Amino acid sequence: MRTIDDRIVHELNTTIPTASFVGKVDPGQTCKELYESLMDAHTKRERIIKNCISQTSAVVKTLKEEREKAPEDAALLKQLRKEQTKLKLMQSELNVEEVVNDRSWKVFNERCRIHYKPPKSQ
């Protein structure tokens, strides 16, 4: 799901013309389309990660409640630890997502600031 972020530099280099090729491509439209693609990708990924966090949090809560009822159950403890680890990984994925998004917006703004001004939401 991060393909657009992974390839943003290549995308900008191949679609935003240098000064000598300015007449052949509309950089404003290209930057607008890229902006919309980035916003869509970032929104979808954030929603999916948060949904996973929410579901895993519910599982952890349920397992904790079961653990209180059966504190000696080793299998239950193992499952709880596994789900807690998964939850921590998903939460750290939100931090990774923030770094990836920041990098993409920085590159986008460096190349497209002359050609396209995004709405104030970003």
Automatic annotation (TrEMBL):
<protein>
    <recommendedName>
        <fullName>Protein MIX23</fullName>
    </recommendedName>
</protein>
<dbReference type="Pfam" id="PF09774">
    <property type="entry name" value="MIX23"/>
</dbReference>
<dbReference type="InterPro" id="IPR019171">
    <property type="entry name" value="MIX23"/>
</dbReference>
<dbReference type="GO" id="GO:0005758">
    <property type="term" value="C:mitochondrial intermembrane space"/>
</dbReference>
<comment type="similarity">
    <text>Belongs to the MIX23 family.</text>
</comment>
